[in-house]
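Tutorial sheet, problem 5. The two components below are modelled jointly, 815 residues in total.
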Amino acid sequence: MTFFSTRWLFAAVLGLAMAAGLAAPAEAQKRQNTIRFAYDQVPENVDPFFNNVRIGVIIAHQVWDTLIYRDPKTNEYRGQLATAWRWIDEKTLELDLRRGVKFHNGAEFTADDVVFTLNFVANPANRSTTQSNVNWIDRAEKIDAHKVRIITKRPFPAAIEYLAGPIVIHPAAYYQQVGPKGMNEKPVGSGPYRVVDHQIGRSITLQRNPDYFRDGPKPQPQIERIVIRFIPDRQTQVAEMLSGGLDFIMNIAPDQAQQMRAVPTLQIVSGGTMRIVFLNFATTENSPAPQLRDVRVRRAIAHAIDRQTMARQLVGEGSQVINAICFPSQFGCDASQAPVYDFDLGKARALMAEAGFPNGFDIELHAYRERNQSEAMINYLRAIGIRATLRFGQYAAMRDQVRANRAAMAHQTWGSFSINDTSASTPVYYKGLDDDISRDPKVIELLERGDTVTDPQQRIAAYREAHRIIGEQVYSVPLYNLVTFYAASRDLEFAAYPDELPRFWEMRWK
Amino acid sequence: MFSYTLKRLALAALVALAVSALAFVLLRLSGDVAIAIAGEGARAEDIAAVRQQYGLDRPLVVQYFDWLGRTLTGDFGQSLYFRTPVFGLIADKIQTTLILALAAILFALALSIPLGVMAAVWQNSWIDRLCLWIAVAGQALPNFFFALCLIMVFSIGLGWLPVSGTDGWENFIMPTVALGYYVTPPFMRLVRAGMVEVLNADYIRTARAKGLPSSTVIIRHGLRNALVPVVALTAVQLGFLLGGSIVIETVFALDGLGYLAYQAIAQKDFPVIQAVLMLLSIGYVLLTLAADLVNAWIDPRIRVG
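Model answer (structure tokens):
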């Protein structure tokens, strides 16, 4: 969302900053034990169920808690507001709740809070923003003060992951009284930080929750205050970092990150994210490019793109080549049976000739972000005679074209809403839904099985087979995952995770 | 004068109406609002539901008149993104934009009047050239670029001023300079031209002949007369500054109307964009009208012609 192309100016700024020998601006913040963080987007509502932006997710996990917690390092599930859970049958999950947890307003956490929150957000009439996060819930029931049951609409094994991700628990009485609007104005959760000031559209200030429960998976927070400001222009954020007005920013452009490495008071960290990139083909009968209906052409394209080089040169440190349309840490993302297409122009040209296109053909490539990567692909395709024209536009416009089957090739990316389960990625593009432009009945059936059987081994087997078919048929060329660059004051201790969630509760000043 | 005022008023109303229709149509042509609202990963039925829920499935003309009718009664509708009344959002932010625009115009006047006077007094000398150069540089530099240069020097280099925010008066200094400098040239040229004309007038010669000090002649007798057209230009430029602050407010993260407009554009929040656009264009139309009326009042030839 960079407003102006002023990179070169910033090269000069950086030069000047270094020449001026920037004083250590973070010192004062360090003494005050505060982190000043800026983000370019404003959440429409801070209530985690009523926004779908990254900053909303970031705030959600500082201010609220989920029932279950996924350790970002091991991907193991641990109890957070719940202490234990079990499937009673394939649609009933029973959870034991933690005792002695208090919300920021002093209210004690009980089964009523879980039941009210889940029933409220699962009701479509309440218009929770991301329906796919909650529309698997049929209802929640109270068994006793510290035990609940969640009944799903259909067998939904990924429930655990959703309960560890987007589904936070609100204090029932307060939420009932103020609703999502009041929750936005004065948010109340049970998390490691409480909101002490919210200037809508401008800033949110978080303060360490001194009563945060111990023995949970999130440690006691060390940093006293987090000031989150909304600064729409990325260049301004960088300038703030250089002048010492901020301590932490993310989503810096790779070339700018490279330049910022030279500033002695800053540290630049890059981390792979869950957002995967792939080249998607329209292969159904009415494909706008009939040539793509021939699997040999699709294989030729897979061999023609040098994914390693693109990941290394264009994306940056932390990017990994993928071999299936899912993020490797996601449950069920098993690409072991999927073929790997190495970069081999000889093979690609032979396949093109075999398919009857020794001189290539003309085609369109639709794309909506990371234009340099689209252009690199166009160059690779040219080497085997495919003359692709770039159709670059807004995401919504591209999606329109894809769904109307007017996009022969689409440069897609997908972030899975940070859900660490394959049901949040592969099925979006291959289970016969709106964005499926290959519509393979066998793949659809396998993904449906993977999404609904409760036995983990059977789930993996179904997804593995689906990935094998998608790979062999090359319905898409899986490319790599994207990277987020963070800039922080040199003295701030932090770790980058694939879910792009800065965990302020585990940060500290050195 | 009365019939002239009436004519101008009618014209202003027509212009505002035309702007509203044009803005409405252009905004709708720029993309499907329903898809934008539904967000990434939305299914066809979600989009259809949004379309129906927000009344976007009705013909464009119906939507326009519906919107116009409500706007005329002071109801700007709900923000699609923040889901709060647009009126409240605008009321929250308008103060910042007004302060910025007024400060910028004062800055522009404070800079351009002395420059214009100096350029006229030392006409065709190196001082004239220098004054002209200072003013023209203001117009030649895109204001976001100038803004970044200011940040580079005063925030990063010297550490005197905060880069961004709306916390205190310090936050307004660089935006005021960046915005005000941009509108300096027309003022400076007008003051210079007026002063050159006035300084050659007979009554100035008389004043000098009376032995009045040079400064009194220039300021009391010269500048006073040269400033009359500047008043009208100030009104027009103020309108321009209200709209021109979108870029500056975004660069400096000043929480005003321009910043709201930028966020609204990024989120395709049509009711907000539409309302801000209407407000800014009506402001511009009214200020231009005021300028016309002032001009006509000063110079009868305008209202007759």
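Marking note: Residues 61 and 191 of chain A are 7 Å apart (CA to CA). Full credit if you identified this.
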